[in-house]
Amino acid sequence: MPVEAAPNQKEARAIGTHLEALGRLLAGIAPWLELESSATETPQETTLRTRYRTWALAGITSALDPSSPDAMHFGQSSQTLVDSSFLALAILRAPNQLLKKLDPTTQHRLAQALITQRQVQPPFNNWLLFAALNEALLFKLGQPWDRMRVDYALRELQSWYLGDGTYGDGPHFHWDFYNSFVIHPYLLQLMDTLADQSPSWSALRPAIEQRAQRQAAIQEHLIAPDGTYPAIGRSITYRCGAFHLLADAARRHLLPEAITSPQVRGALAAVMHRTLDPVGTFTPEGWLQIGLAGHQPSLGETYISTGSLYLCSAAWLPLGLPPDDPFWSHPPQPWTSQTIWSGKDIPADHSQDV
Fold it and tell me: How would you write 92-124 as a 3-class SS string?
Protein backbone atom coordinates (compact mmCIF):
# COMPACT_ATOMS: atom_id res chain seq x y z
CA MET A 1 0.00 0.00 0.00
CA PRO A 2 1.37 3.44 -0.82
CA VAL A 3 1.58 6.07 1.90
CA GLU A 4 0.09 9.43 1.00
CA ALA A 5 0.32 11.98 3.79
CA ALA A 6 0.69 15.69 4.47
CA PRO A 7 4.04 17.30 3.59
CA ASN A 8 6.87 16.05 5.83
CA GLN A 9 4.56 13.51 7.52
CA LYS A 10 5.04 10.42 5.34
CA GLU A 11 7.69 8.75 7.49
CA ALA A 12 5.79 9.32 10.75
CA ARG A 13 2.46 8.17 9.32
CA ALA A 14 4.00 5.04 7.78
CA ILE A 15 4.35 3.57 11.28
CA GLY A 16 0.62 3.04 11.69
CA THR A 17 -1.04 3.58 8.33
CA HIS A 18 -1.27 -0.12 7.43
CA LEU A 19 -2.90 -0.91 10.77
CA GLU A 20 -5.28 1.97 10.08
CA ALA A 21 -6.31 0.43 6.77
CA LEU A 22 -6.76 -3.05 8.23
CA GLY A 23 -8.73 -2.04 11.33
CA ARG A 24 -10.95 0.53 9.67
CA LEU A 25 -11.82 -1.54 6.63
CA LEU A 26 -12.67 -4.57 8.77
CA ALA A 27 -14.73 -2.46 11.19
CA GLY A 28 -17.02 -1.54 8.30
CA ILE A 29 -17.41 -4.99 6.74
CA ALA A 30 -17.40 -7.05 9.97
CA PRO A 31 -21.22 -7.31 10.25
CA TRP A 32 -21.33 -8.60 6.67
CA LEU A 33 -18.61 -11.14 7.49
CA GLU A 34 -20.65 -12.22 10.51
CA LEU A 35 -23.91 -12.59 8.56
CA GLU A 36 -24.93 -16.17 7.80
CA SER A 37 -26.09 -17.01 4.30
CA SER A 38 -29.80 -17.46 3.69
CA ALA A 39 -32.17 -18.75 1.03
CA THR A 40 -32.74 -15.19 -0.18
CA GLU A 41 -29.06 -14.52 -0.74
CA THR A 42 -27.40 -15.01 -4.11
CA PRO A 43 -24.76 -17.77 -4.42
CA GLN A 44 -22.34 -15.11 -5.67
CA GLU A 45 -22.62 -13.14 -2.42
CA THR A 46 -22.16 -16.30 -0.33
CA THR A 47 -19.00 -17.14 -2.27
CA LEU A 48 -17.70 -13.58 -1.99
CA ARG A 49 -18.27 -13.47 1.79
CA THR A 50 -16.47 -16.79 2.27
CA ARG A 51 -13.49 -15.42 0.36
CA TYR A 52 -13.41 -12.22 2.44
CA ARG A 53 -13.69 -14.14 5.71
CA THR A 54 -10.61 -16.11 4.69
CA TRP A 55 -8.75 -12.95 3.72
CA ALA A 56 -9.74 -11.17 6.93
CA LEU A 57 -8.46 -13.97 9.15
CA ALA A 58 -5.25 -14.24 7.13
CA GLY A 59 -4.76 -10.48 7.35
CA ILE A 60 -5.21 -10.34 11.12
CA THR A 61 -2.95 -13.35 11.59
CA SER A 62 -0.18 -11.83 9.47
CA ALA A 63 -0.55 -8.43 11.14
CA LEU A 64 0.16 -10.03 14.52
CA ASP A 65 2.93 -12.39 13.41
CA PRO A 66 6.32 -10.79 14.13
CA SER A 67 7.97 -12.99 11.49
CA SER A 68 5.59 -11.89 8.72
CA PRO A 69 6.51 -9.15 6.25
CA ASP A 70 2.99 -7.85 6.93
CA ALA A 71 3.53 -7.55 10.70
CA MET A 72 2.03 -4.28 11.92
CA HIS A 73 3.26 -1.86 14.52
CA PHE A 74 1.36 -1.89 17.82
CA GLY A 75 2.34 0.58 20.51
CA GLN A 76 5.01 2.28 18.39
CA SER A 77 3.13 5.57 18.03
CA SER A 78 0.15 7.21 19.66
CA GLN A 79 -1.88 6.64 16.48
CA THR A 80 -1.70 2.88 16.97
CA LEU A 81 -3.97 3.25 20.00
CA VAL A 82 -6.66 4.54 17.64
CA ASP A 83 -6.26 1.83 15.07
CA SER A 84 -5.74 -1.13 17.35
CA SER A 85 -9.11 -0.02 18.68
CA PHE A 86 -10.74 0.00 15.25
CA LEU A 87 -9.41 -3.53 14.81
CA ALA A 88 -10.92 -4.39 18.20
CA LEU A 89 -14.23 -2.88 17.06
CA ALA A 90 -14.17 -5.07 13.95
CA ILE A 91 -13.48 -8.23 15.93
CA LEU A 92 -16.22 -7.44 18.45
CA ARG A 93 -18.67 -6.89 15.58
CA ALA A 94 -17.89 -10.35 14.17
CA PRO A 95 -17.22 -12.55 17.20
CA ASN A 96 -18.11 -15.80 15.47
CA GLN A 97 -16.24 -15.24 12.21
CA LEU A 98 -13.25 -13.22 13.41
CA LEU A 99 -12.68 -13.67 17.14
CA LYS A 100 -13.54 -17.36 17.55
CA LYS A 101 -11.78 -18.43 14.36
CA LEU A 102 -8.41 -16.93 15.22
CA ASP A 103 -5.97 -19.64 16.29
CA PRO A 104 -4.80 -19.63 19.95
CA THR A 105 -1.38 -18.20 19.09
CA THR A 106 -2.93 -15.28 17.22
CA GLN A 107 -5.43 -14.67 20.01
CA HIS A 108 -2.54 -14.48 22.47
CA ARG A 109 -0.61 -12.11 20.21
CA LEU A 110 -3.73 -9.98 19.84
CA ALA A 111 -4.08 -9.70 23.61
CA GLN A 112 -0.43 -8.73 23.98
CA ALA A 113 -0.76 -6.15 21.22
CA LEU A 114 -3.72 -4.53 22.98
CA ILE A 115 -1.83 -4.50 26.28
CA THR A 116 1.08 -2.65 24.65
CA GLN A 117 -1.33 0.15 23.76
CA ARG A 118 -1.75 0.98 27.45
CA GLN A 119 1.55 2.85 27.28
CA VAL A 120 -0.21 5.48 25.13
CA GLN A 121 -1.88 8.09 27.30
CA PRO A 122 -5.04 9.17 25.46
CA PRO A 123 -5.80 12.88 25.26
CA PHE A 124 -8.89 14.21 27.02
CA ASN A 125 -11.32 13.66 24.16
CA ASN A 126 -12.86 10.81 22.15
CA TRP A 127 -9.59 8.88 22.47
CA LEU A 128 -10.72 7.70 25.91
CA LEU A 129 -13.12 5.44 24.04
CA PHE A 130 -10.30 3.84 22.05
CA ALA A 131 -8.59 2.76 25.27
CA ALA A 132 -11.90 1.52 26.69
CA LEU A 133 -12.77 -0.59 23.65
CA ASN A 134 -9.38 -2.31 23.70
CA GLU A 135 -10.19 -3.37 27.25
CA ALA A 136 -13.57 -4.66 26.05
CA LEU A 137 -11.85 -6.97 23.58
CA LEU A 138 -9.42 -8.14 26.27
CA PHE A 139 -12.50 -9.06 28.31
CA LYS A 140 -13.89 -11.10 25.40
CA LEU A 141 -10.50 -12.78 24.98
CA GLY A 142 -10.71 -13.95 28.59
CA GLN A 143 -7.73 -11.81 29.59
CA PRO A 144 -7.32 -9.53 32.62
CA TRP A 145 -8.84 -6.18 31.70
CA ASP A 146 -8.88 -2.73 33.24
CA ARG A 147 -12.36 -1.74 34.46
CA MET A 148 -11.10 1.71 35.38
CA ARG A 149 -10.26 2.63 31.77
CA VAL A 150 -13.79 1.67 30.76
CA ASP A 151 -15.47 3.39 33.67
CA TYR A 152 -13.43 6.57 33.21
CA ALA A 153 -14.36 6.80 29.53
CA LEU A 154 -18.05 6.21 30.19
CA ARG A 155 -18.20 8.72 33.05
CA GLU A 156 -16.39 11.43 31.13
CA LEU A 157 -18.58 11.01 28.06
CA GLN A 158 -21.68 11.38 30.21
CA SER A 159 -20.28 14.60 31.66
CA TRP A 160 -19.61 15.89 28.12
CA TYR A 161 -23.17 15.34 26.94
CA LEU A 162 -24.56 18.64 25.64
CA GLY A 163 -28.13 17.70 24.76
CA ASP A 164 -30.08 16.83 21.61
CA GLY A 165 -28.08 13.69 20.92
CA THR A 166 -24.73 15.49 20.90
CA TYR A 167 -21.59 15.00 23.00
CA GLY A 168 -18.65 17.32 23.32
CA ASP A 169 -15.38 15.88 22.08
CA GLY A 170 -13.93 16.73 25.45
CA PRO A 171 -15.49 19.43 27.62
CA HIS A 172 -16.23 21.70 24.65
CA PHE A 173 -18.30 21.30 21.49
CA HIS A 174 -16.50 20.84 18.17
CA TRP A 175 -18.52 21.15 14.96
CA ASP A 176 -17.36 18.06 13.12
CA PHE A 177 -18.54 14.49 12.61
CA TYR A 178 -16.81 12.88 15.60
CA ASN A 179 -20.15 12.12 17.27
CA SER A 180 -20.56 9.76 14.32
CA PHE A 181 -16.98 8.79 13.46
CA VAL A 182 -16.32 7.51 16.99
CA ILE A 183 -18.42 8.61 19.95
CA HIS A 184 -21.86 7.08 19.44
CA PRO A 185 -20.75 3.86 17.68
CA TYR A 186 -18.14 3.20 20.35
CA LEU A 187 -20.57 3.84 23.21
CA LEU A 188 -23.07 1.46 21.63
CA GLN A 189 -20.42 -1.26 21.26
CA LEU A 190 -19.25 -0.80 24.85
CA MET A 191 -22.84 -1.33 25.96
CA ASP A 192 -23.10 -4.47 23.83
CA THR A 193 -19.93 -5.95 25.26
CA LEU A 194 -19.68 -4.71 28.83
CA ALA A 195 -22.97 -3.25 30.07
CA ASP A 196 -23.75 -6.42 32.03
CA GLN A 197 -20.43 -6.21 33.87
CA SER A 198 -21.57 -3.32 36.08
CA PRO A 199 -25.01 -2.12 37.23
CA SER A 200 -23.88 1.48 36.78
CA TRP A 201 -22.88 0.78 33.16
CA SER A 202 -26.09 -1.07 32.44
CA ALA A 203 -28.05 1.90 33.79
CA LEU A 204 -26.43 4.11 31.11
CA ARG A 205 -27.67 2.00 28.22
CA PRO A 206 -31.18 3.47 27.69
CA ALA A 207 -29.85 7.04 27.51
CA ILE A 208 -26.91 6.05 25.30
CA GLU A 209 -29.28 4.38 22.84
CA GLN A 210 -31.82 7.22 22.85
CA ARG A 211 -29.09 9.80 22.28
CA ALA A 212 -27.66 7.74 19.42
CA GLN A 213 -31.11 7.50 17.89
CA ARG A 214 -31.52 11.27 17.99
CA GLN A 215 -28.07 11.87 16.51
CA ALA A 216 -28.88 9.39 13.73
CA ALA A 217 -31.99 11.43 12.92
CA ILE A 218 -29.87 14.59 12.73
CA GLN A 219 -27.46 12.80 10.41
CA GLU A 220 -30.25 11.73 8.08
CA HIS A 221 -31.50 15.33 7.94
CA LEU A 222 -27.99 16.58 7.05
CA ILE A 223 -27.91 14.65 3.78
CA ALA A 224 -29.01 17.00 1.00
CA PRO A 225 -31.29 15.89 -1.86
CA ASP A 226 -28.24 15.30 -4.09
CA GLY A 227 -26.31 13.28 -1.48
CA THR A 228 -23.96 16.10 -0.45
CA TYR A 229 -23.53 17.20 3.16
CA PRO A 230 -21.69 20.00 5.02
CA ALA A 231 -17.91 19.71 4.70
CA ILE A 232 -17.41 20.90 8.26
CA GLY A 233 -14.68 20.07 10.74
CA ARG A 234 -11.65 17.85 10.79
CA SER A 235 -11.26 14.39 9.26
CA ILE A 236 -13.65 15.19 6.44
CA THR A 237 -11.52 12.93 4.20
CA TYR A 238 -13.10 9.90 5.86
CA ARG A 239 -15.74 10.53 3.20
CA CYS A 240 -18.97 8.55 3.70
CA GLY A 241 -17.57 7.31 7.01
CA ALA A 242 -19.03 10.57 8.35
CA PHE A 243 -22.28 8.58 8.53
CA HIS A 244 -20.87 5.76 10.65
CA LEU A 245 -23.59 6.29 13.24
CA LEU A 246 -26.49 6.47 10.78
CA ALA A 247 -25.33 3.21 9.20
CA ASP A 248 -24.90 1.62 12.63
CA ALA A 249 -28.34 2.77 13.77
CA ALA A 250 -29.88 1.24 10.64
CA ARG A 251 -28.02 -2.01 11.26
CA ARG A 252 -29.24 -2.09 14.85
CA HIS A 253 -32.85 -1.17 13.96
CA LEU A 254 -32.33 1.88 16.16
CA LEU A 255 -33.75 4.45 13.75
CA PRO A 256 -36.46 6.79 15.08
CA GLU A 257 -40.00 6.02 14.01
CA ALA A 258 -40.17 8.99 11.64
CA ILE A 259 -37.20 7.74 9.58
CA THR A 260 -37.56 4.50 7.67
CA SER A 261 -34.89 2.03 6.62
CA PRO A 262 -35.47 2.66 2.88
CA GLN A 263 -34.97 6.39 3.46
CA VAL A 264 -31.59 5.67 5.04
CA ARG A 265 -30.69 3.17 2.31
CA GLY A 266 -31.26 5.81 -0.34
CA ALA A 267 -29.52 8.56 1.59
CA LEU A 268 -26.42 6.48 2.34
CA ALA A 269 -26.24 5.26 -1.26
CA ALA A 270 -26.34 8.86 -2.48
CA VAL A 271 -23.56 9.85 -0.08
CA MET A 272 -21.43 6.90 -1.21
CA HIS A 273 -21.81 7.92 -4.85
CA ARG A 274 -20.89 11.54 -4.08
CA THR A 275 -17.78 10.59 -2.10
CA LEU A 276 -16.51 7.45 -3.87
CA ASP A 277 -17.39 7.97 -7.55
CA PRO A 278 -15.49 11.22 -8.39
CA VAL A 279 -12.40 10.99 -10.57
CA GLY A 280 -9.29 10.93 -8.41
CA THR A 281 -10.84 9.06 -5.48
CA PHE A 282 -8.60 6.08 -6.23
CA THR A 283 -5.10 5.68 -7.63
CA PRO A 284 -4.82 3.75 -10.91
CA GLU A 285 -3.91 0.73 -8.76
CA GLY A 286 -7.11 1.08 -6.70
CA TRP A 287 -5.92 2.69 -3.46
CA LEU A 288 -7.90 5.51 -1.88
CA GLN A 289 -6.44 9.02 -2.12
CA ILE A 290 -6.91 11.91 0.29
CA GLY A 291 -10.01 13.97 -0.44
CA LEU A 292 -13.78 14.18 -0.09
CA ALA A 293 -14.91 14.46 -3.72
CA GLY A 294 -11.88 13.24 -5.63
CA HIS A 295 -8.20 13.86 -4.88
CA GLN A 296 -7.98 16.90 -2.58
CA PRO A 297 -4.81 16.45 -0.48
CA SER A 298 -5.12 19.86 1.19
CA LEU A 299 -8.22 18.57 3.00
CA GLY A 300 -6.07 16.10 4.93
CA GLU A 301 -4.78 17.03 8.37
CA THR A 302 -1.27 16.05 9.44
CA TYR A 303 -2.60 12.82 10.99
CA ILE A 304 -4.33 11.72 7.77
CA SER A 305 -2.66 9.13 5.56
CA THR A 306 -3.75 6.46 3.10
CA GLY A 307 -4.82 3.98 5.76
CA SER A 308 -6.93 6.58 7.54
CA LEU A 309 -9.23 6.90 4.56
CA TYR A 310 -10.66 3.40 4.91
CA LEU A 311 -12.99 4.57 7.66
CA CYS A 312 -15.32 5.22 4.71
CA SER A 313 -16.23 1.53 5.02
CA ALA A 314 -18.30 2.36 8.11
CA ALA A 315 -21.13 3.39 5.77
CA TRP A 316 -21.41 -0.26 4.71
CA LEU A 317 -22.52 -1.58 8.12
CA PRO A 318 -26.07 -2.37 6.88
CA LEU A 319 -24.54 -5.09 4.69
CA GLY A 320 -24.81 -7.09 7.92
CA LEU A 321 -28.59 -7.14 7.51
CA PRO A 322 -30.08 -10.11 5.59
CA PRO A 323 -31.63 -9.57 2.14
CA ASP A 324 -35.19 -9.86 3.49
CA ASP A 325 -34.68 -7.11 6.06
CA PRO A 326 -36.82 -4.01 5.36
CA PHE A 327 -33.61 -2.05 4.84
CA TRP A 328 -33.12 -3.98 1.59
CA SER A 329 -36.53 -5.41 0.74
CA HIS A 330 -38.84 -2.38 1.03
CA PRO A 331 -39.31 -0.02 -1.93
CA PRO A 332 -37.22 3.17 -2.17
CA GLN A 333 -38.41 6.23 -0.27
CA PRO A 334 -37.14 9.83 -0.44
CA TRP A 335 -35.08 10.88 2.56
CA THR A 336 -36.10 13.90 4.61
CA SER A 337 -34.35 16.66 2.65
CA GLN A 338 -35.63 15.28 -0.64
CA THR A 339 -39.18 15.35 0.70
CA ILE A 340 -38.93 18.88 2.10
CA TRP A 341 -37.18 20.41 -0.92
CA SER A 342 -39.70 18.82 -3.28
CA GLY A 343 -42.34 21.02 -1.63
CA LYS A 344 -44.19 18.32 0.29
CA ASP A 345 -45.62 19.11 3.71
CA ILE A 346 -44.20 17.04 6.59
CA PRO A 347 -43.96 17.54 10.38
CA ALA A 348 -41.19 19.81 11.64
CA ASP A 349 -38.11 18.44 13.37
CA HIS A 350 -37.66 19.14 17.09
CA SER A 351 -34.82 18.84 19.54
CA GLN A 352 -34.77 16.05 22.10
CA ASP A 353 -33.10 15.93 25.49
CA VAL A 354 -32.34 12.63 27.16
Answer: HHCHHHHHCCCCHHHHHHHHHHHHHHHHCCCCC
